[in-house]
Amino acid sequence: RRLGVGRAAAFVGGAVCGFAPGVISHANGHPNFVVGFLIPVIIDRTLAVHEARGRREIVIRSVVVGLLVAWQVLIGEEPLLLAAIGMACVGLVHAAHRRLSLVRLAPVFGIGAPVALAIVGYPLWWQFNGPQSYREVWHPDAGNDLASLWSTASMSWGSDIVTAGRLALNRTEENAFFGVGIWLVSVLVIVLLWRRRPLVRGLLAVIILATWLSLGMTVTWEKNPAGVPSLWAFLEDAPIVENILPTRFTLIVIPAFGALLALGVQEVLRRSQRAGVPLIGPVVAAVLVTVAVVQAIPTPLIVRPRESVPAFFADG
């Protein structure tokens, strides 16, 4: 709806967002990452504040954003933080192109943030300062290997499970593995729409920033040093952010790819209509979508019963 595309293009973009390898991977054990239904609603309602007219409408919409953010904090904080980073990146690019006013978004922080803190302030205080709280979690240099960016995930059709297992941190952290096709199609869409849609510049900024951050402290190619400078080194010790596994930054890339693919499908359909050959558009769009997603089509999730929690942990 926000991209101004038809239902077919929106369906393609939504399918990419819902069934990308990173989402399927986290479905093995991280429901806080899979249950992401509030993220697009938060983005939509934040833009609604920007469009609001009149003080009453601004206040009501800002309060709604605050309530949604509080709800998302209680579902999962890390997806919210990642989404905020992606939103900030696209927002700054739009502001630079005078397509977005940061002043008009100020009520989100001035009104929405206090509403959210009124609900989750005490739980957050308890998390960071309450009994048995801790400030950081040690983890290895959990960055994406460069080769994982276009490889095939272990739960995608035609995957090389051995290669995926070697490149990923573990089976629930295959956050990249986009395949080659979606990179090629996204580059094509960016070239076609670079002048007409400043949004693609924002999406490109997200892809570059998030992918670079996801490579971790030591950038590797097939587990060997790649000689690429690390962007994560600047954030490794930043409060709160330091506890994100760098590999997860590519989860922000998923909606960027989804949006680019939706825009690409719509552009192909539009150009075929203008050229007077409307039947060609759906065929070309279908080919582009197939090239983009064929390497990332997921296999069915394997469901097995788990052993019960040992009494030592479960009996209080």
What does this molecule look like?
This protein is mainly alpha-helical and 316 residues long. Helices cover 57% and strands 1% of the residues. The protein is built from 13 helices and two strands, in the order ααααααααααββααα. It has helices spanning 7-19, 21-26, 31-34, 38-51, 55-75, 77-96, 106-129, 161-167, 180-193, 198-214, 253-274, 280-293, 311-314, and strands at 220-221, 224-225. A two-stranded antiparallel ribbon has the order 1-2. β1 (220-221) and β2 form a beta hairpin. α5 crosses α6, α5 (55-75) packs parallel to α7 and α6 (77-96) crosses α10. It starts with 6 loop residues before the first helix and ends with a helix. The relative contact order is 0.16.
What is the H-and-E element order?
HHHHHHHHHHEEHHH
The gross shape turns out to be globular
How many strand units?
A: 2
List the strand order in the largest sheet: 1-2
Radius of gyration: 21 Å
Described by strand count, sense and barrel closure, the largest sheet is: 2 strands, antiparallel
